[in-house]
Amino acid sequence: MPRGSIELLAMNIATSVTIADLNVYPVKSCRGIPLDAGEVRATGFDGDRHWMIINDKGRYLSQRELPRMALIAPEITTSGLTLNAPGMPQLDITSGSQSAAIEVTVMMDRCRAFHCGDAAAQWLTQFLGRPVRLARFDATCTRAVHPSLWKGDIDSIVEFCDAFPFLIISEASLDDLNARLPSPLPMNRFRPSIVLRGLQPYDEDRIHALVVGDVTLRLVRSCTRCVITTTDQSAPAWKASRRIGRQVIAGVARVQGTRVIGPQTGWIG
């Protein structure tokens, strides 16, 4: 899926819409990587949320508890994954770094994964300041979108994301929110997979599907936003004033973004 023009299936939206930005997030809740084009898989963009930081009980961790995760910059390589963070040496994780198979918890689900080794655990523990490990999704397993979130007419699967394979937001919706805040927010606070240009504010809530070439993504529900939208992704800390935090969350209640399922090649719901 490249940036550029797309086709919308929507009610009463007549405009020229393009994909402005694409992003993939290899390690859950760590820094994203901008893409010129993304390989679309049933679980999202290739490599998206394929790795996850967990505690000693195998439960997922995120910027909600550890805002410094925003400073960890992953890169997908031909041999696996590299991690960089301020003040830390580069960590290289190869496909041979996995040790025992483990069971992990992400949101409401338990699924199989691989422990990525002691070197990764020590590196992350040192940077984040608490004992953690790195897990890699076991691609031989299938994690379905939780039935409390989706009971539609097609199956949808994910790896370590919270709920759905993709998150879509329009530039216009963020512009509308920023017009009502004392300090504007960058798009990276919302961690979208796909950013649309050319819509009116919140038009993404009325789109039924996006069609890009032979890929169709069906938009299914809005995304409830959390405290990560108040975390500065370049200098993360719990320092935002309560007043600013409340204003952000109040605005974010409108600028939710839309979760999608897909891809369904040649399929339009």
Calculate Rg over CA atoms. Answer: 18 Å
Class of secondary structure makeup: mainly beta
Number of helices: 3
Question: Ranges with pLDDT <50 over ≥5 residues?
Answer: 239-249, 262-269
Count every beta strand, where a strand is a DSSP E run of 2 or more residues: 20
Give average pLDDT, whole number: 84
Q: Please give the alpha-carbon distance between the first and last residues.
A: 19 Å
Largest sheet: 9 strands, mixed
| Helix percent band | 10-25%
Shape: globular
Strand content: 25-35%
The SSE order reads EEEEEEEEEEEEHEEEEHEEEHE
How is this fold's topology laid out?
Elements lengths: L3 E2 L1 E4 L7 E7 L8 E3 L4 E2 L2 E2 L5 E4 L18 E4 L3 E5 L6 E4 L6 E6 L2 E7 L2 H11 L4 E5 L5 E2 L12 E2 L7 E5 H8 L15 E4 L9 E6 L2 E8 L19 H11 L5 E4 L8
Parallel strand pairs: 16-17
Antiparallel strand pairs: 1-3, 2-18, 3-4, 3-17, 5-6, 7-13, 8-9, 9-10, 11-12, 12-13, 14-15, 16-20, 18-19, 19-20
